[in-house]
Amino acid sequence: VRLLLESYIAEKAALSITEEDLRRLKKLNEESDYVLRHDTPFESRKNEIEFHRIIGSVAGNPILMFLLDFVENLLIDTKEILKPGKEFSKKVLNAHKRIHKALSERDVKKVRAEMIKHVQEVEKDLAALQNRESKGYLKKME
Predict the structure, then answer these.
(1) What would you measure as the largest C-alpha separation in the chain, in angstroms?
(2) Which has the closest alpha carbon to 13: 81, 105, 75, 97?
């Protein structure tokens, strides 16, 4: 669901994003970079989600925004449970920089491709963490 929703929203945003929206996204990426360098993972996770919410707001569809909020809240809960590390957040930040660049170029195909790549990478990394957590839990049960 997230893959379809986020890639569609990103495409729509590429068509209507303003310079102010791009500045907000860039500032958020800069803040994320700062908090990563200063080891404040909670702030980093908060910024990761806010990046997607800004893009969602640019798309201008309240129903899509409602769905995106729901999905992002599930992602927040998942990250709170799995506690992905600094490397995860670095990968997310790099993806967000690529998405920002594609948005600033108003390249709809590139924005879609970068968002798909990003969502798939996050899903893969979180699934690996969940798998590791499950194995650790099962070992404790033995």
Answers:
(1) 57
(2) 105
Low-confidence ranges of the chain (pLDDT < 50): 138, 141
CB-CB contact of 90 with 36 (8 Å): yes
- Cα–Cα separations (whole angstroms), residue 95 to 52, 70, 133, 138, 141: 12, 22, 25, 33, 37
pTM (2 decimals)? 0.90
HSE-CB of 52 using CA atoms within 13 angstroms: 30
Pairwise CA distance, residues 2 & 27, whole Å: 24
The structure tokens 């070992």 sit at 139
| Tens digit of each residue's pLDDT (9 = 90 or more) over 60-77 | 899 999 999 999 999 999
Which domains does the chain possess? Answer: 2-141 (1.20.120.530)
Cβ 54 vs Cβ 8: under 8 Å? no
